[in-house]
Amino acid sequence: MAKGKFRQGISSLVQNWKTTQKSYPFLWAEALGLFALGAVVAGAPVWFLLNPITSILIGLPVGLLAATYWFSRRAMSAAYSSIEGQPGAAAAVVQSIRGNKWPMTPAVAVNKNQDMISRVVGRPGVILISEGPASRVGSLLANERKKTARWVPDIPIYEIQVGVEADQVKLQKLQKTLAKLPRNLRGGEVTEVRRRLDALGNAANSLPIPKGPMPTSARSVRRPR
How many domains would you assign to the chain? Predict the structure, then answer.
């Protein structure tokens, strides 16, 4: 069993490396440079103050940690880039967050240009997340906000526009933006709001959610779940 998990971990690491290197061709040089830098910075003082053996025992793990950290950041960035711009990318990112903290109803509203609104119900209240140019999603958000407010008039409603324009939230920063929202509801209230909004339904069948690797955390890059 342990041997199988080890092989699975190596296979996952190799696959992540190949996928990331497509976006960053010089990833090997970056990782090697960080490894060398970390090893030298941590090991050099020990070399002079104690002895070479201790220096190597300290420098190598520090160098490996530095290289692994950099690789994990690059891997997450590559994963985001691979789905950025696809319809449903923001919904896919939210659904990939561990712990089910942000229950998502994708594609509650979709227009002919495949701009979409997804609805999240969490401790802050109701969060409407749009995907598409600001000039097109404004009316979608306004209509969905009015419809939602009729069902939950006393619940805070937030709007997040995901995109690449100046006033929009980039896909890579969506999870952090959600985490910064205030906590207005208790657990039981979240469940009740979700139950009431479930009656609104969604248009999920009209627009697919992107498949493939999702950026969840640096830990998922370092080892398989």
Answer: 2
